[in-house]
Design brief:
This protein is an alpha/beta fold and 276 residues long. It has a single domain, classed as Rossmann fold (3-Layer(aba) Sandwich), CATH 3.40.50.2000. It is 38% helix and 20% strand. It is built from ten helices and eleven strands. A nine-stranded mixed sheet has the order 3-6-7-2-1-8-9-10-11, sandwiched between helices. Strands 4-5 form a two-stranded antiparallel sheet. The longest helix is centred in the middle third of the chain and has 18 residues. It starts with a strand and ends in a 6-residue tail after the last helix.
């Protein structure tokens, strides 16, 4: 097996959020990869309901402090870290007082998008990659899961225009059962343009709803994992019709087998670029 460095970007990870299909996936897949000898880093948002005290989170001073410009305004990037002792696994949290510490999740209690959900999503995607770059830790593959992580490949392309840090990095996107109603405001595209969005990016994100975000992520990705038996069938069909169709992995309800299949997909995508 080609071990390699894998970056996991998840919108939910158990036990920091309640147990559900997505948070279980976010908890156990990275742990399995670590057990197999892969070098991993794991990131998620620090939603306000993720207790710093209960989870013993602390700020990583050497990674925090930079300002990210979102919608022509400076926003401080704060990186915190916690651990899952049973898995001997660290989890990095992307935090910002305005976007996360005071404001909870990007969907309200009724499942409706918060007014600034687009900026939170942009901040999370860019903030994660900037933190990884500051770590000077170049992943061979980024596995991003859920719609809230869908800006990751966009920012990888943007960063590569500056210094090609992610030039040879492959990407895998998980299609989850996490659909939301409604759509982002049109100003989101303007915010992306000020952050380097090309005409191709704008075309891909023309539909600013759940389906549009996920289809753009699928189009960018090197491979796709169907992470739920309830994943939107239109998205699954779209993935199988894309240029990366041969790297689409169907859902398997046997977790051990499924994680083994995912790791073999990693090997196919990155094996030739790793020096063991």
């Amino acid at each position: 097996m080609a071990k390699g460095r894998i970056l996991f970007v998840n919108q939910e990870i158990m036990p920091f959020v309640p147990e559900n299909e997505r948070s279980v996936f976010g908890r156990y897949l990275p742990a399995r990869c670590q057990e197999l000898g892969r070098d991993i880093r794991v990131f998620m948002p620090r939603y306000s309901f993720v207790s710093e005290r209960k989870n013993q989170l602390h700020e990583v001073i050497r990674l925090s402090g930079m300002n990210l410009i979102i919608n022509n305004c400076d926003h401080q990037l704060i990186i915190k870290v916690g651990s899952i002792p049973a898995a001997r696994m660290q989890v990095y949290f992307i935090d910002n007082e305005e976007y996360f510490s005071k404001s909870g999740a990007p969907l309200d209690e009724h499942g409706v998008l918060q007014a600034d959900a687009d900026e939170r999503m942009l901040f999370f995607g860019r903030g994660t990659l900037e933190a990884v770059r500051k770590l000077a830790w170049q992943p061979h593959l980024v596995h991003f899961s859920g719609w809230f992580s869908s800006m990751v490949p966009f920012y990888m392309r943007r960063i590569n225009k500056e210094d090609a840090f992610f030039k040879d990095t492959k990407t895998v996107f998980t299609i989850s059962d996490d659909a939301f109603e409604g759509h982002f405001v049109d100003e989101m595209l303007k915010k992306m343009k000020t952050d380097g969005a090309t005409a191709k990016d704008v075309r891909l994100f023309e539909s600013l709803d759940y389906m549009g975000l996920c289809k753009a992520a699928i189009t960018y990705a090197s491979g796709v994992v169907v992470g739920s038996p309830n994943a939107n069938p239109e998205l699954v069909a779209f993935a199988k019709e894309c240029k990366n169709a041969k790297f689409v992995l169907d859902y398997n309800d046997n977790q051990s087998e499924f994680f083994g299949q995912i790791n073999r997909l990693y090997d196919v995508l990155i094996g030739s670029s790793i020096n063991n």
